[in-house]
Amino acid sequence: MYPYLSEFIGTAMLVILGDGVCASNGLEGSLFKGSGPVYVMLGWGLAVMLPAMSFGFQSAAHFNPALTIGLAIAGLFPWSMVLGYIVAQMCGGFVGAIIVYLVFKDQFKLTEDTFGEDSVGTCRGTFCTGPAIRNLAQNVVGEFAATFFLVFFIVCITPTAGTVGLNYFFVFSIIMCCGFSLGSTTGFAMNPARDTAPRLAYFLLPFKYKDADWAYAWVPIVGPILGSACGALLGSLVTSWPALSI
């Protein structure tokens, strides 16, 4: 049970720290309101890296159903553990989102969401992603691309990076790179446990005005899973190539 427990706790920590960055940047009454995208990228990178360093030895620190599925498709993770990992990750994301709400409860009370066709809503945007321009097919492409690079680099860099701790420092770099380069169109969810589970928590929490945007919710599921599968397959292929001998 230890790998599943590690995935649960690690995913909860990732969501608490990552969504905490979004709350600090966006909510009224926050000392860090309006800190900007660089603050968010750095914060999310650290939010992924530190739990990964803590639980990498115990579970390989997936914290992401798309990553787990992609690695299994590429033959890099046993299918027998996939369902348990996904359940643990989604439960961790849900619990993490509830804790974010409790920590920032006063700030949420001060923040009033407005919703439009292309509006994420500040409170909802703390928990889950939304597109800058709503074009669902193009939004899937954006999530596919960001997750493709995430998983490709994870698969390719990990065997050559050295120690486990150093591996996860590179994950920090990968997260920031994907966010800076490809995150501006959809908010780069890349992870159903970071988007779908907190979206459900937001839907169930006692906000006066809320819209979970379930019509969009499939995008940060389908795009990341497809991107992860392709990234893992190509990464597995690349790492099988013989090293250059000079």
Which terms summarize this structure?
single chain; 246 residues; mainly alpha; Glycerol uptake facilitator protein; globular
Provide the β-strand percentage band. under 5%
Q: Count of DSSP E strands?
A: 0
**Helix and strand pattern:** HHHHHHHHHH
User: What's the main sheet like?
Assistant: none
Number of domains: 1
Question: What would you note in describing this structure?
Answer:
The structure is a single chain. The longest helix has 26 residues, at 136-161. Helix 1 packs parallel to helix 4 and helix 7 (136-161) runs parallel beside helix 10 (219-239). It is globular, with a radius of gyration of 17 Å. The protein contains 10 helices and no strands. 69% of the residues lie in helices and 0% in strands. The chain has a single domain, classed as Up-down Bundle (Glycerol uptake facilitator protein), CATH 1.20.1080.10. It starts with a helix and ends in a 7-residue tail after the last helix. The protein has helices at 2-26, 37-59, 65-73, 82-103, 105-110, 122-127, 136-161, 164-182, 192-204, 219-239. The chain has 246 residues and is mostly helical.
Furnish the topology, listing elements before pairings.
Elements: H1 2-26, H2 37-59, H3 65-73, H4 82-103, H5 105-110, H6 122-127, H7 136-161, H8 164-182, H9 192-204, H10 219-239
Helix pairs in contact: 1-2, 1-4, 2-8, 3-4, 3-10, 4-9, 7-8, 7-10
